[in-house]
Amino acid sequence: MKAILLKKYGMPNDLEIGEVTKPVPSEGEVLVKIHAASINDWDWGLVRGKPFIIRLFFGLRKPKIEIPGVDISGTIEAVGDGVSSFTAGDEIYCDLSECGLGGFAEYVCVPEKMLSKKPSNISHNDASALPHAGILALQGLVEKGKVKTGQRVLINGAGGGVGTLGIQILKPYGVEVTGVDSGEKLDLMKSLGFDKLMDYRKADFTAIGEKYDLILDTKSTRSPFKVARSLKKDGRYVTVGGSMVRLLEIVLFGWLISLFTGKKLSVLTLKANKGLDQISKLVEQGQLSPVVDGPYEFDKIPELIQYFGDGRHLGKIVVEMEKGL
Ligand SMILES: NC(=O)c1ccc[n+]([C@@H]2O[C@H](COP(=O)([O-])OP(=O)(O)OC[C@H]3O[C@@H](n4cnc5c(N)ncnc54)[C@H](OP(=O)(O)O)[C@@H]3O)[C@@H](O)[C@H]2O)c1
Fold this sequence. Notes:
One of its GO terms (molecular function) is zinc ion binding. The chain is 28% helix and 26% strand.
């Protein structure tokens, strides 16, 4: 089968397109024919081996992962022994970040516990945009952020995968949502329902005197002390990503800030696919649909990872696997 091969850390144009043996499902696994995949920060980080912590998990000098790719949607072609919840022909989608990646290929084997049935009212292209970013948004806003009706919420870095799904997850709560991103993404964000918009190149959300009940951050661009000043009493700040130094600061100083102010600052650790059935329900009810940048062709994946790293994408970059194989 064809796959995108990660033979060394470098830049996306160091990735190779090659032939590898089609995998065979072990006990508890299914073999998935991948119809669509989407690009994530994981791919950008893994390909470069940056930040350094990635190398602690995936190989210090050379990547141990042969095929990158986190988000997929596809059809089950075969099931291994002991698989009880799925059969051949089922359409599924999932995040592979906790089971070895491998989404940029024609086929992948996945433990059945990682899978959810694809919502029947959307295409594989749309479905592939949902698992990783949708779950980060759901766990950040609902599970850890504990969003409540009537609150004031801000999403920093809101024009990418997490923010464009996050605003739709927030809608039913009747909250006022401010979105912060670069100027060229604000029109799209307005069309998705953000009540207030801010261009981070022109304004600093921690310096305008506004206070929020909940801040979800995809970039962690401000210090924990600055974000704490932008929270109301008992407010929560949840970050899903940013530089390692900033995330460490939030862990180290967050508890101290909580101790003295009651405001809660935390770093979310993704639990892959936990809540994906809830995402499916929102999609089936017509409350959630991804913003898709694409779909693009399989052989463009290296360029698309670079495009993601350059921050030029809107929403989720999607690859239709059968195109360009
Ligand atoms: N916690 C976990 O376990 C876990 C797991 C996986 C991933 N993650 C993290 O989750 C995040 C995923 O977010 P995503 O998929 O939404 O990423 P994304 O699609 O790249 O969106 C991030 C947005 O932030 C904007 N941005 C860049 N610099 C900014 C700044 N200084 N201020 C405000 N906005 C800025 C970007 O726009 P421009 O570039 O155009 O400016 C982009 O639109 C990543 O940080 C990733 O590392 C966390």
